[in-house]
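Side project, low priority. Logging it here so it doesn't get lost.
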Amino acid sequence: MPNSFHATEFAGLPVVQVPEPDAWDDAPVPAAALKDPASVAWRLRMEDPEEYEEAHLSAYLERFAGSVDLSSVRAIVVGNIADDDFAFQAAAVRDALTALVPRLPDLRALFFGEILQEEYEISWIVQVDLAPLLAAFPALTEFTVRGSEDLGLAIGRHEHLRRLTVQSAGLPGRVVRDIAAADLPALEHLELWLGTEDQGNDTTLDDLAPVLSGEAFPGLRSLGLRNADKLDTWIPALADAPVLAGLDTLDLSLGTLTDEGARVLRDTPGLRHLRRLDLHHHFLSEGMAARMSARFTAAGVEVDVSGREKPYVSNGRTYYFPSVGE
C-alpha cells in the first residue's frame, strides 16, 4: 500500500528526518543538509506518542529552528505527531507551523499528515481546517494531505499552488466541492483519492463537474482520480470530459478498474494524445491488460497496467477493493 512506507523523496528532494531534541547526537542530521537546508525535504515526526504534550512539540520545533536555517527550507513533511491515544495532533501542528511563517519565507512544498498504516489507518486520521495554513503560506507550490475526516480545504484563491493532492480512504463530496470552487490559477496537478462509501466517499459527478469540464482549472495537465471504488462507473463521464484535451497525464491507479471500464478507455480517442496513463492496481483480465498496453503503446502513450489484482469472491458474490480501503 502507498501508505505503508515513508516517502524517501518529496517535491523532488530527498527526505531527511528531524531528530527529537534528545536524539540529535544519536541520529545526527547529515552535514550536507545542514549546510544547504534547501537541498532536502525536512520530515517532522515524533517517535513516541506516549511522550506527547504541546510543550514537547514546541521544544521539538524550537530545536529544529535553532539547528536548521529555516529561511532556506523549501519543503517540509509532517509525519506522525500523535498524543498518547495515538491521534494525530493536526490542529496543534497546523498552528505551530503557522507561527513559523515569518521564519519560513522560502517554503514551497508541504506534506501534512504522512502517517503510515502501521501507525494509524488512513481512515482514522482526523484532520482539521487547513485552509488557514495554505493562506499563511501564499508562496506554496505543492501541498499534499493524508486523511480526510474533518478536513477543511475551502482554499479560496491561492496564486502559486501548482500541485494539490488529497489522499483518503473515503473522500467527502464537500471537500471535492471546496477544491473545485477554489481559484487556483497556477494549478497543473490535481490528485484525489476517492476511496469507498464505507469510509466516507460520497463524491458525485456533479461535485467533480467543474474539474471535468475544464472550467475550474484551465491549466491542469495532470489529473489523478485514484484509489477509487466502483471506478468503472466514473469512466464514461471521464471519457467525454473536456478536461482531457489539456491533460498529458491521467492517473486512475489504485482503484477497481475492470474490463468494463477498460473497454471504454481503450475506445476513447481523446486519451491517445496523453503522455502517460497510469492504471496500476486493477482487476483487468490478462487479455484486456495486454490489449490496453498494445493500444496505448502504439499511440505513443506510456501506459502502466502492472499490479493485476484478483477480486474477492464470497458466497457467490464478487468484490473489488481499492488499494487503500481503511
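Brief comment: The chain has a mean pLDDT of 95.
Revisit when time allows.
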